[in-house]
Each structure stands twice: as C-alpha cells, then as structure tokens.
Design goal:
Layout lengths: L25 H38 L3 H20 L8 H11 L34 E4 L2 E4 L5 H8 L13 H9 L29 H25 L5 H8 L1 H32 L13 H17 L1 E3 L6 E3 L3 H8 L1 H27 L3 H4 L5 H27 L11 H4 L1 H4 L2
Antiparallel strand pairs: 1-2, 3-4
Helix pairs in contact: 1-2, 1-6, 1-7, 1-8, 2-5, 2-9, 3-6, 5-6, 7-8, 8-9, 8-13, 9-11, 10-11, 11-13
C-alpha cells in the first residue's frame, strides 16, 4: 500500500555532503545500473514463472476440487511469493513499479468485498460502504447510487470496476492477497495458533458445495490468477532490453540512477518494512497488521524482502532454479572503491539484518506463527520481531551514509509514524 513519504530529517536520517573525490566514474555507475535492471528482469520473470505455476494449480483445483488440489494450489501460492517479495526493493524510486504495485500486492484488504465472512467481521464500516458487498454471492452490487453488473466475474470487473472502488484502498479485488483469501479464507484465530481454514468444498461441484456460490468462487479465483499473470507479464517486459522501467533507470544518469537504487533500499528497509509492516503491528498487538494474514506466511514475506535487498545491494540474484545467478557490478563495489570502511559497515549491517530475519523465520516455523509473536505479553516473540526492526533501522542509517559518500542529493526515504512518532498511532 502506498504511504506518505517523509523527509529523512524526520527520522534523523539526513545525508550530508561527501568529498568530491568520492564520486564514481560514469562507466562504473552505468555497469551497476545495467546489472540492477538485469536483476529486476530476472526477478520479475521468475515471479511470472511461479504465477503461471499457480495458475495451473488453480485450474486443477477448479476443474477437480479436492483436498489434494486445494493443498497444491496453496503450495503454489506460497512458492509464488518467494521471488515476488524479492522484487519489492524496486518499488520505491521506480515510479513505473510503484504505480503498478497496488494491482498485485495491495494490503490490507476488506475481504467482505470478495466473499462470505464470519459474523465477527461485522456488517458495515464508516470508511467503506462495500465492506461486506460479497461480490461472489451477489451478481449486482450498488455503489454511489449506481448499480454494477457483477453477473459475470471478468478481468474488467475486478481490475477496472472493483479494485480500490470509491478510492478506498482496502477494496482490494486483485493480486496475491485476494487469491490468498480465496485459498485460505479468514484467519479467525487472532494471536492464537492456526491460519485460515477454508474447506476445499468451497469449490466443490453440485450439492457438495459449501457456503454457496462455488461456481462463482471458482470463476473469481481463476480470473484473479489470470490477472496476476497478465500484470507480471507487463512488469517483466518493463525491465526487458527495450522496457520502459529499464530505460528510465539508465536515462536517469549516474546520480539519478544511484538515487533510485538507494531510495528502494532505504524506503523498504525503514518506513515500509520496519515501520508499517512490522512495528505498527507490534505496537498494536494486532494480527490484522500482518502482511500474509490469511496463510500465516508473513515471516517468509518479510524474510524474502530482506533477501531481495541484499541481492540488489551486492548485485547478485540466484534464480528460482537454485543454480542460475545474475551477477555483475554492484552498489557495494562502488562504496568499497571509495570507502572500504563504510562498505564493511554496510555489509555488517545487512548481515545482521539477515541473521535477525532468519531467527524470525525459524521461530515462525518451529515455535509459533508471526501473528502469535504479536500477542500482548509475548516478550520472546516481541523481542524476535524488534530485533529485525532494529537491524532494518540500523542498515538504513548506513544507506544514508552511502548517499553522502556517492555525492547524491539527500533522499527522502519513506517514513512511518510507528517509528518516527509512535504516539500518533494511538490517536
């Protein structure tokens, strides 16, 4: 979700001028920018490949619903998240990506727009008149005095008519999280153990169908997955040899291009991941603030965001086959050439973040889920998450020093009230 961008000064992260001798040569910078674009193309291509596998699994589920095909579709969704989350470092600074991102990864969402919900969800919202519209159950819905024909669940209906309808960001009709909800259903466990438990019979044929409208639910899931493939095809193309996103980075020049890279690294580290996705939920002890809230996959989403940041900074990405590597000149190389001590500092900061994130991932897989770590009074869980937040904040300060070293204009990294003004969260 898009958040307000705050100046670095608000978080004490304002870059200062660096010595003129620190600026790298144009040829070295262009090699870094080219590798940055090559990694983006590989990441989005891998995301597309996994989305196509998800599409095939969804087709198998809707063609022959069973516990086995439902589980296979869930596993395909989880696998699809791994390469996609690594791309999030490209959001901030790349306008083409940030303007597109809401179609595929918008969150949180008011799931009552899409399908049936538990009574504990409530029936209305002051902020969202379509809070419980339930498009799957209703072939016609009304918004703003106008009737919307939803008799056929189509790409146009989801992407053009329902996505963020009424300017409400929680009206998420497309993307990974809409698909996640349709596979898992609501997680009604709060900060207790367990994820969503949607039965496979929600897609069953005929009288075996549970919760009604199984044919329309299957149609919605299929169309949402079709759209995900379309959207990722578009973004992979944007980073191809003649793609618009690649051109924008290369044509930004040395200062502009390096600023794009560091904006992505600093903004994802600080305001987005440490702040909005982690600290906010910890302050509120609220499982509704976890990123993959239906599937209890949040620990992996956060972990692979961090893996993606490392790939971009060090200029090396291992593809989903586990063997192929896209590797080239990196931001780390530029920093090391000008200031080896700072390069060592940044590497240590990134290593510390990865170690803290790995501890979070291991705890989630062996001890308790991410949403359980958010529970009030869970000191060990809170400490595990806070360690990641602290490490992300520390690496952001190191990125700020790289901005100065490379003689870039001060960058307004994304901020977050949860980090910069926690009292505001409770107002």
């Amino acid at each position: 979700m898009r958040r307000n961008i705050l100046a670095l000064a608000a978080a004490g992260l304002l870059a200062v001028a660096a010595p003129a001798s620190a600026a790298p040569g144009d040829g070295a910078v262009r090699a870094v920018l080219t590798n940055y674009a090559d990694i983006a193309q590989a990441m989005y291509s891998d995301s597309l490949a996994r989305a196509k596998e998800l599409h095939a699994a969804v087709q198998a589920l809707t063609d022959a619903p069973s516990a086995a095909t439902m589980q296979a579709a869930k596993q395909a969704w989880l696998a699809a998240r791994v390469p996609y989350q690594q791309t999030e470092v490209y959001r901030f600074g790349n306008a083409i990506v940030d303007e597109w991102e809401g179609k595929v990864n918008a969150w949180p969402l008011d799931e009552g727009l899409i399908d049936y919900v538990d009574s504990s969800y409530g029936t209305d919202s002051d902020e969202n008149p379509l809070y419980t519209a339930n498009v799957i159950a209703n072939p016609k819905i009304t918004h703003g005095g106008e009737e919307i024909n939803a008799s056929a669940i189509t790409k146009e209906l989801l992407a053009e008519k329902l996505q963020e309808i009424g300017g409400v960001e929680a009206n998420v009709a497309t993307g990974y999280h809409a698909i996640e909800f349709l596979l898992w259903g609501q997680d009604l466990n709060g900060t207790g153990p367990g994820a969503g438990k949607r039965p496979w019979t929600d897609y069953a044929k005929g009288s075996a169908c549970t919760n009604g409208n199984c044919d329309r639910r299957a149609q919605y899931l299929t169309v949402a997955t079709d759209l995900l493939v379309d959207d990722l095809t578009e973004m992979a193309g944007n980073w191809a040899a003649d793609g618009e996103a690649r051109k924008a980075v290369l044509e930004a020049g040395p200062q502009g291009g390096l600023s794009v890279i560091l904006t992505g690294l600093g903004s994802l580290s600080y305001g987005e991941l440490a702040g909005e996705r982690m600290k906010l939920g910890l302050l509120l002890n609220d499982p509704e603030e976890e990123h993959d809230c239906f599937s209890d996959n949040t620990h992996n989403s956060h972990y692979y965001d961090i893996v993606g940041m490392r790939a971009v900074y060090f200029g090396s990405y291992t593809r989903i086959d586990g063997k192929s590597v896209v590797n080239g000149r990196s931001l780390h190389d530029l920093v090391r050439a000008s200031d080896p001590a700072l390069a060592s500092e940044i590497k240590q900061a990134l290593d510390a973040t990865q170690a803290a994130a790995l501890a979070m991932k291991q705890r989630a897989e062996a001890v308790e889920a991410y949403d359980q770590m958010l529970a009030s009074g869970n000191e060990a869980g809170a400490a595990t998450l806070q360690a990641v937040i602290d490490a992300l904040s520390a690496q952001t300060r190191s990125f700020e020093r790289a901005v100065a070293l490379l003689e870039l204009q001060p960058i307004a990294f994304e901020g977050s009230d949860s980090l910069d003004n926690p009292a505001a969260v409770f107002q």
